[in-house]
Design a protein that fits this description.
9-stranded mixed β-sheet; Rossmann fold; globular
Length: 390
């Protein structure tokens, strides 16, 4: 089992608050991590997709109270939103008896925003942690490991598959599971074929602003419906929405968000890219690398960091603007090649957003300065800098 970098943070939160929600896409490794942590304490695991476990919760207050001395792990919590009110009562009762932490670990395959609609009753009693796929610090920092992770994506079963073909077959099965089972079970009435077509279109538009009306015309639906479908994929943590930077800039800016297919393996499967050589010759190469870097950086950001992109209507841009909890601004440009070329106004563009650190992530292994306080840096080295500064 690959050690996940989020482990210590999860253990710390369990020791500090009554309930912790660990959120991430299906098959990303949440259950494996939760069970590994549970080995060190008295625990009870319930899968809310399993009929036998749901039957145990016919009278949830009584059943959960009978295991009051354990860490109770509830998997796929979004399947049973009515449980949140029950958990509130149990947590408050335990508080009166002196137990203030380590009561519930909730695992969910939906976004924080979607879960919060059901979990408002746990305000002040719950901490949220988002878990993504494997990142380059977890799988290995050498070039071959990074190439493998980039092609196959961060789902453990895909990354650790026997070969690329097996990995792509696994990803195809995951896509079908989402479209044919998970989306309907979440209550969304969306034709699977149409949603897959949209997901594929968004893959071609990786890291670009999205014109809902244009996409709707291709799908024979209106732009409002396209927006709803995009929200579904975002809520299921399959797309990342990156908002435009707009603070204290007196320039005409692009105001539409950008979207990234969060897992590079899913992106490649949707586009029919099944080998590293095929990826290198595909027009999506640069944007695929950009999305891969964006997702890896997000996996190590401190909790209260905020991320944006910056682009003016004149074409000046920064791929990723990070506002750290300290209010320090990091500007990150992303280039796939090993000899990155920057626009002559890049430093000024960084100054427009008030950047205190300026980086160019590239496909090489080293770190070296270029231009005005700009550092070219490898992805693993930048991730290590973020962690050491957090």
């Amino acid at each position: 089992m690959i050690k996940r970098s989020i482990t210590e943070r999860l253990q710390k939160n369990i020791g500090q608050v009554p309930a912790v929600a660990l959120l991430g896409p299906r098959q990303v490794g949440k259950t494996t991590l939760a069970k590994a942590i549970a080995k060190d304490t008295e625990s009870l695991y319930l899968d809310l997709e399993a009929p036998e476990d749901l039957l145990k919760l016919s009278d949830p207050a009584s059943f959960l109270s009978s295991h009051n001395d354990k860490l109770i792990i509830l998997d796929e919590i979004q399947r049973a939103p009515d449980l949140f009110m029950v958990l509130r009562g149990l947590i408050d009762k335990n508080r009166e008896q002196g137990r203030k932490s380590g009561q519930f670990l909730l695992l969910g395959s939906a976004s924080m925003d979607l879960l919060r609609q059901s979990s408002e009753s746990l305000a002040g009693r719950i901490s949220y942690i988002e878990m993504g796929g494997l990142n380059v610090l977890e799988t290995g920092e050498n070039k071959k490991d990074i190439q493998k992770l980039w092609l196959r994506g961060g789902f453990p079963d895909s990354y650790q598959a026997g070969d690329d073909n097996i990995a792509m077959d696994w990803l195809e099965d995951l896509i079908r599971t989402y479209l044919e089972r998970d989306v309907p079970q979440m209550g969304f009435r969306v034709p699977a074929v149409r949603l897959r077509r949209l997901w594929t279109m968004l893959s071609h538009l990786q890291g670009e602003p999205v014109n809902y009306s244009k996409l709707g015309g291709n799908l024979e639906i209106d732009g409002k419906t396209v927006s709803h479908y995009v929200d579904i994929l975002t809520d299921l943590l399959l797309l990342r929405r990156l908002e435009p930077w707009h603070t204290n800039v007196k320039k005409r800016l692009i105001k539409s968000p950008r979207f990234y297919v969060r897992d590079s393996g899913l992106l490649h499967r949707l586009l029919g890219i099944d080998s590293y050589d095929a990826l290198l010759s595909n027009p999506v190469l640069g944007k695929s690398w950009e999305g891969f870097v964006v997702e890896n950086i997000h996996s190590v950001l401190p909790r209260r960091a905020e991320t944006y992109f910056y682009r003016t209507t004149a074409g000046a841009e920064i791929d990723l603007v990070i506002k750290m909890p300290s209010s320090e601004i990091w500007a990150v440009e992303i280039k796939h090649g090993t000899s990155p070329k920057l626009g002559k106004h890049y430093s000024q563009t960084c100054n427009d957003v008030g950047a205190t650190r300026k980086y160019v992530v590239y496909g090489g292994d080293d770190e070296f300065p270029v231009g005005d306080d700009v550092n070219v840096i490898s992805l693993p080295k930048l991730m290590n800098k973020i962690q050491s500064d957090s």
